[in-house]
Amino acid sequence: MSQELPAAGSVLHRSVSAPGNQARPQSPEDDDRKVRRREKNRVAAQRSRKKQTQKADKLHEEYECLEQENTVLRREIGKLTEELKHLSEALKEHEKVCPLLLCPLNFVPLPRPDPVAGCLPR
């Protein structure tokens, strides 16, 4: 009794028995069970793919929102940087002519009450 090898690229099925084991014919119940199992697996695979697609869509939407927010924030940074530059220049110009900064009496240290002493009980 010679055993033929499967052709290259063919798939062995479980119904093929190993050497020394008796091949068991498929009953109609086994066939029905196999069909139901395959259908159940097909539905589960479809559900899994759909869930994966929904997750990817949600991530893409979140990415788009974050990109828009990032763009808005970068514009705001640019505006605030320009405002800081303008205000710094205005302050430098003001310091040149400010009478409070030019008066030497404004730099005399005044005695200040101790902030901790005001909090202690007497």
From TrEMBL:
Keyword vocabulary terms for this entry: Activator, DNA-binding, Nucleus, Repressor, Transcription, Transcription regulation
Domain BZIP: 31-94
One GO BP annotation of this record: myeloid dendritic cell differentiation
Gene Ontology cellular component terms for the protein in this record: cytosol; nucleolus; nucleoplasm; RNA polymerase II transcription regulator complex
Region of interest: Disordered: 1-59
InterPro entries documented for this protein: AP-1, bZIP, bZIP_sf
GO molecular function, one term: RNA polymerase II cis-regulatory region sequence-specific DNA binding
Family statement drawn from the similarity comment of this UniProt entry: Belongs to the bZIP family.
PANTHER family, alphabetized: BASIC LEUCINE ZIPPER TRANSCRIPTIONAL FACTOR ATF-LIKE 3, FOS TRANSCRIPTION FACTOR-RELATED
The protein's name: Basic leucine zipper ATF-like transcription factor 3
Gene assigned in the entry: BATF3
